[in-house]
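User: I'll paste a sequence; please echo it back and then give the predicted structure.

Assistant: Echoing your sequence first, then the prediction.
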Amino acid sequence: MGTRSIRLLVVDDHEPWHDFVSKAFRDRPEIQVVARVCDGLEAVRQAEQLQPDLILLDIGLPKLNGIEAARKIRDVSPDSKILFVSENRSAEIVDAALSAGGAGYVVKSDAGSELLPALKAVLDGKRFISASLATQLLATTGLSVLQITPFSWVLGIISWLSRLYI
């Protein structure tokens, strides 16, 4: 991720999530949370004003949902990477999020182990999908194995195999 500080915009309407992200990156001086906002319209405004390197974006937001916000953010801050972080596991929603400009999608319940690897993958220009979604998405969308980060693909296979043999 280099020596330059990563500028992060956190967009979620759930205060405990903001606290989790702040704690997760507290000991990582290379990651700077530049703003925390609670709705989609403010996310677009802050993205335009701050031009962050990365935006952590929830789906279910007031005023403007995360997918619509991502479309608008693409126009006002085209160099910002978008990493969706949501508890929504619908393949259609994940596909819509990625089609709207998301470079990755992390299920919130997996964020403890996947948020940092996802952040690194997205900033390196790769796509990241939570392991708990990888096999589902491969079966239901047009994503190919090459579009999913190898780490998440391997975790997805392990998860799928563990359900078969346990």
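Helices lie at 15-25, 40-50, 66-76, 91-99, 111-123, 131-140, 150-165. The CA atoms of residues 127 and 147 lie 6 Å apart.
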